[in-house]
Design a protein that fits this description.
By secondary structure, the protein is mainly beta. It contains seven helices and 34 strands. The chain has two domains: about 220 residues, Beta Barrel (Cathepsin D, subunit A, domain 1); about 170 residues, Beta Barrel (Cathepsin D, subunit A, domain 1), CATH 2.40.70.
Length: about 500
Amino acid sequence: MASAPSPSSSSSSRSPLRILFVSLLLHLLLSSSIPRSLATGFLSVRHRFAGRSRSIADLAAHDLRRRGRALAAADLPLGGRGLPTDTGLYFTEIGIGTPSKSYYVQVDTGSDILWVNCITCNNCPKKSDLGVELTLYDPKSSQSANLVSCDESFCSSMYGGEIPECSSNLPCRYSVMYGDGSTTAGYFVTDYVQYGQVVGNHQTKQVNASISFGCGAQQTGDLGSSNEALDGILGFGQANSSMLSQLAASGKVKKIFAHCLDTINGGGIFAIGNVVQPKVNTTPLVPNQPHYNVNLQAIEVGGALLQLPSDLFVTGDKKGTIIDSGTTLSYLPEAAYKPMMNAVFANHQDLSLHAIQDFVCFQYFDNVDDGFPEIIFHFENKLSLNVYPHDYLFQNGGNVYCVGFQNGGMQSKDGKDMVLLGDLVLSNKLVLYDLENQVIGWTIYNCSSSIKVQDDKTGEVYTVNAQNISSGWRSKWGSSTALVLLTLVFCCLII
């Protein structure tokens, strides 16, 4: 996903039912002052619903919130594995400050800032139902922390220029309001962020990076509740304010990252750096879009192309198809959804289809991969996305299966024409985001195996294995400079 071009602008590609507006506010003098300081690495990511089953109603509500946050100017998270009925958010543990303290943050491939709850926060959760211990960030307790004032380049770049009536004693503030009613607001600080960096085959060392991030002073809605509480959000969006962009600007990494979500054995990989194996074919990103948009050209079901309107995938200012690992399901305009569903069930006229929440479900006793067709999405530059029956059909208890594609016509006006492909169809694929060359690509891959990444400073190629760390794992900080690795852990049911 992408980020807003400026803090006061709304996303030009908004969530069907939830609209995320991002604005930076400049007021409210800060009564405290703070010191300042440098990084890149290895993070373990865990699944938000580890070991807990969820109803299909929970999935619908949860995916609605994910889309509301993920599909706009400053959105959310990294997607997951397994049955959609057991898929939620993913989070990782990072170190912040001097001395370092651990924080659990939601990993977001599209958000444009890193923020954590601050010590002065109003309505910040004090405990979490996720089984993690929450920590409030205190800039005054970190020897390397420093307030970002409104006259600094980091702040002015977010506003798109100099800020009127700004003075060096005014903080650079942020405020994010989500369409579901939840909000986060606070001010920016700069401090060390610590994580492990790849320095050899299966080897990492601890590194520090000086990152400007949000110090959350007030949360509302879901962000203030304990059931989904984390310490903050770690954004990997395209804007200059993202952690990825800051690391790239400091010469530590290139703006290239990849993720591989494993539904077979659990676990997976999220790596920043030049992935040299597996090789990935790519398609151009649509320019000037706030998300990771690509040009979808055709949809094939069971070997036959669907007869669709030629302008179906370009409507108004919503250009291209959104590739969004922060959303569980996939969404199609009604003009594509109905022909696809007809083709999927063409050989199963005898099945009794029924609705569970907004899902089309049916009872089936055989292997779905043998009985249902493969779906192939064809993109510009001859890149295809193959989606197998076990990818788009998920089990909802017993022998009941439900379709993971959703009808955009049932969404709001803003979302009815949107094409969005979520992690339901992105799992078991190595997905590469090459922002240096403005392309994105993927290949079917065994995400429980390993990939090879190249250190662009030394030219060395290192092997990075997938991991599936237990929920009781605690990070062990190892130090250095160039490639960043995040290892994902998905504790979900298996499709």
